[in-house]
Amino acid sequence: MMTGFVGGTALAMRQVSMGKKTLGNLLTFISHWGSIKGSVKQITGSYQSISSTLVNAERLLQLLLTEPSVIDSESSKELVVDTGEIRFENVSFAHDPQNLITKKLDLLAEAGKTIAIVGESGAGKSTIVNLLLRLYDISKGSITIDGWDIHDFTLSSLRKAIGHVPQKPILFNRSIRENVRYGRLNASDKEVEHACKAAAIHKSIMDLKQGYDTTVGEGGVRLSGGQRQRLAIARVLLKDPKIVVLDEATSAVDTLTEAEIQKAVSDLSSGRTVFIIAHRLSTIVKADTIFVVHEGKIAEWGTHEDLLAKQGRYAKFWAQQTSSLER
């Protein structure tokens, strides 16, 4: 582009010097060149934008055309949870048959009890939750709720029966009220506020200028990490399921926020079967049973006190975390 401008200007100046063109012609050329340059840049930018959009559209189309590997069977029925007992029996799972993530795993969550799952990063903790939600299907074994295999139920009814608070809550660029109400779309404003009070987030909401009408931004960017977690807990409280899964809900918050979330979790756990995937062991010392996962298997289990007495992996994790806090 610049080479053309320099060449064109040199030619025009030569013609002016020879008397074939006027100085006004030269100035007109330079003025029009600026307009042409801007138009060409705009066209080039539009082309790049269109190319990028087409690539993204192609990826989206490929995603939409992909057949899901986890689907309902023709005989699938609606899940209605009775007591909420969950049992994993001899469960193995792998994306690659040569590399098992869980290996002949056995686990029992008694109805109305809180169990915690701990272990090193990559041990298979979150995979256990994903298998319960049927985000993946197991390779071998069985997972049952109240004695019924989860494959017997529709995916929608299974996931509706389980309240899930992920490590990174999904929040939409809507109001706080609408985000919480996503847990139960026909909930009244009073029910939304009651859930937020139980989740220890109501006061923080009322401190905002627009209160429950505050738009949270995409992904909840206008809220702190602790506020996002408590909104996710409020959403689950509003949903009122008999089974709750908390996936490292306090892994990225400060100690004060952790205490507030713990209070909300305690209220949420009452009368429900609760799975807690824990990073901070201080958050699960009161769990009824703690399962320690190592290389896809249950290495040990028991109460907090039982596991400390065993002087195994859990005791080692506990010593590491408490010593780091004391420094």
UniProtKB/TrEMBL annotation:
Species this protein is from: Paraphaeosphaeria minitans
Organism lineage string: Eukaryota, Fungi, Dikarya, Ascomycota, Pezizomycotina
Chief place of localization: membrane
Cellular localization per UniProt: Membrane
A single GO cellular-component term on record: mitochondrial inner membrane
Family: Belongs to the ABC transporter superfamily. ABCB family. Heavy Metal importer (TC 3.A.1.210) subfamily.
Signal peptide (UniProt feature, chain positions): none
Entry superkingdom: Eukaryota
InterPro entries membership: AAA+_ATPase (IPR003593), ABC1_TM_sf (IPR036640), ABC_transporter-like_ATP-bd (IPR003439), ABC_transporter-like_CS (IPR017871), P-loop_NTPase (IPR027417), Type_1_exporter (IPR039421)
Biological process terms in GO annotation: oligopeptide export from mitochondrion
Single annotated GO MF: ATP binding
Name of a matching Pfam family: ABC_tran
Bilayer topology annotation: Multi-pass membrane protein
Protein name as it appears in the record: ABC transporter
